[in-house]
Amino acid sequence: MSQSPSWCPQTFLDTYLFAAEAHRGQTVPGTQGLSYILHLSTVAMEVCAALTVEDFERPNLGMQCALLHDVIEDTDTTYEQVAQRFGDDVARGVMALTKDEGLPKPEAMADSLQRIRDCSPEVWAVKLADRITNLQKPPAKWSPEKRTYYVNEADIILAQLGDASAYLRERLRLKIVEYRSQHCGSD
Ligand code: NI
Predict the structure, then answer these.
(1) Partners of 35 in the beta sheet?
(2) How far apart, in whole angstroms, are the C-alpha atoms of residue 42 and residue 125?
(3) CA distance 54 to 106
(4) In degrees rounded to 5, what are phi and psi of residue 54?
(5) Cys-Cys with 115: which of 2, 29, 54, 96 at CB 3.0–4.6 Å?
(6) Distance 136 CA to ligand 1 centre (A)
(7) Is the separation of the CB atoms in 123 and 116 below 8 Å?
(8) Residues labelled as active-site residues
(9) Closest CA to 114 of 136, 102, 130, 97
(10) pTM to 2 decimals?
(11) pLDDT for position 2
């Protein structure tokens, strides 16, 4: 058997190292000090799982945007630096996945979703994977209202971007059901 993955492991490695350096010292909120690279790895894992079972035209674009999806929003890295290193399409995808901090919260999400929809399905897949990954046990300090808000937002993501991947759509759907039953009870 001589099959190779649709995405390039060397490109994964180069992109992963870039992201790891950029996010150095950051941790995943709600965990006790777990490295932020954990979040990027799991989002990339979800996207690579979709790339394994479904055909995408530009698998590397999805994998790279997954690894870099928070690099402009959460680090000093600029659009230009991402474009210079990984090309315009990757930078544009990452930019679409970056919330405009000048907008109020609900609008920032709607605005980002609109910009994601202007990109190719690989970028949509990253947003689906991001929310799949984030629908875990919420931080203890989150109020019931915040949890409900968060899972309702996931419904919108699913409705607007689900067409990119039947595989991720079903994973997100199940995560939403699970989150509602476990974390949005009457406590
Ligand atoms: Ni994320």
Answers:
(1) 27
(2) 13
(3) 31
(4) -130, 155
(5) 96
(6) 13
(7) yes
(8) 73-74
(9) 97
(10) 0.95
(11) 54
CA count, 13 A, side-chain hemisphere, 127: 32
- Spatial separation of the C-alpha atoms in residues 15 and 180, rounded to whole Å: 34
Tokens describing residue 8: 């390039």
Summarised one tens digit per residue, pLDDT across range 117-162 is 999 999 999 999 999 999 999 988 899 999 999 999 999 999 999 9
Cα 19 to middle of ligand 1, angstroms: 12
**Amino acid, res. 78:** T
Q: Give the distance (Å) from ligand 1 centre to CA of residue 130.
A: 5
pLDDT tens digits, the chain, 187 residues: what are they? 557 889 999 999 999 999 999 999 999 988 889 999 999 999 999 999 999 999 999 999 999 999 999 999 999 999 999 999 999 999 999 999 999 999 998 899 999 999 999 999 999 999 999 999 999 999 888 999 999 999 999 999 999 999 999 999 999 999 999 999 999 975 4
Whether residue 34 contacts residue 27, with contact meaning beta carbons closer than 8 Å, is answered with yes
Length of the chain: 187
| Best CA proximity match to 97, nearest among 122, 133, 76 | 122
- For the chain, domains (ranges, CATH) are 9-183 (1.10.3210.10)
What separation in Å is there between the alpha carbon of 69 and the centre of ligand 1?
A: 6
DSSP state of 60: H
Distance CA 176, CA 170 (A): 10
